[in-house]
Amino acid sequence: MMSKDDAFFWEGAQEGRLLLRSCASCGEIAHPPLPMCPHCHGLEWGTVEASGRGTVYAWLCSKHPNQADDKGRIVVLVDLEEGVRLVSNLLDTEIDEVTAGAPVAVTFVEVDGQILPQFRMTGDSA
């Protein structure tokens, strides 16, 4: 469910933009979105558009518990170039192809009527 603290993120995703929250006082980026800046305790926020580029920090294969033959999906923790981490899915990749530090780029995919940021591996070096 969308809250006032993360509405900007989901609205940006609907536009194909990966938005992050930045503190209006100190400029630090906070993700996940928080009501108060963890660096300076400011309460005013702006947004910055992320590059959408990053590297894989960690990953796992998530399978549905009632569908044993399901291939599953790869869930990744991505280190974005902006210095924060984002949890998402990795598309079009086999689990044995994923490595720590692998370069990835965001893409936006419609799932059940909602546009979600997902990632794909790139051939670029990070």
Helix fraction bin: under 10%
Computed structural class: mainly beta
Helix count, DSSP H or I runs of 4 or more residues:
1
H-E string: HEEEEEEEE
What is the molecular shape? globular
Distance between the termini: 33 Å
Largest sheet: 5 strands, mixed, barrel
Q: Flag low-confidence runs.
A: none
Provide the spatial order of strands within the biggest beta sheet: 4-5-6-8-7
Kindly provide the radius of gyration, computed on alpha-carbon positions and rounded to a whole number of angstroms. 16 Å
Strand residues, percent: 35-45%
Q: How many strand units? A: 8
Mean pLDDT: 92
Task: Please explain how this structure is put together.
The protein has 126 residues and is mainly β. Helices cover 6% and strands 43% of the residues. It is built from one helix and eight strands. The chain has one helix at residues 7-14, and strands at residues 19-23, 29-30, 45-49, 53-62, 73-80, 85-91, 103-111, 114-121. The strands form two sheets. A five-stranded mixed β-barrel has the order 4-5-6-8-7. A hairpin with a 5-residue loop joins strand 1 (19-23) and strand 2 (29-30). It is globular and about 50 Å long. 18% of the residues are buried. The mean pLDDT is 92.
